[in-house]
Amino acid sequence: MNIIKLSTVLSFIFIHPVLFAKGNAELGKQKSVTCIACHGANGISNNPIWPNLAGQKAQYLIKQMKDFRSGARKEASMSPMAKPLTDADIENLAAYYSSLKCK
Hints:
Elements (H helix, E strand, L loop, with lengths): L2 H13 L9 H7 L4 H4 L18 H13 L7 H5 L4 H13 L4
Helix pairs in contact: 2-6, 4-6
């Protein structure tokens, strides 16, 4: 593969990371029912102390949820919510929230 083709492929991968997300957004939407109370029905929180999840990068969301689950990141509300999540749950939630448009 020549340099131009390789750079085109690499730029596409980095510009469009949501296309390469592992999770299933539809399953993530179904799993997000417990997230709605704090993060809003469309990933936009009504409370300024809780972050918006809509439009966040999938890899960022995956890391944060895994850190809450493992205890590497602690927060009184999120840590117990993340504890029972499987890797697939986390990837699905990340795919869902990263697919939403932020306001």
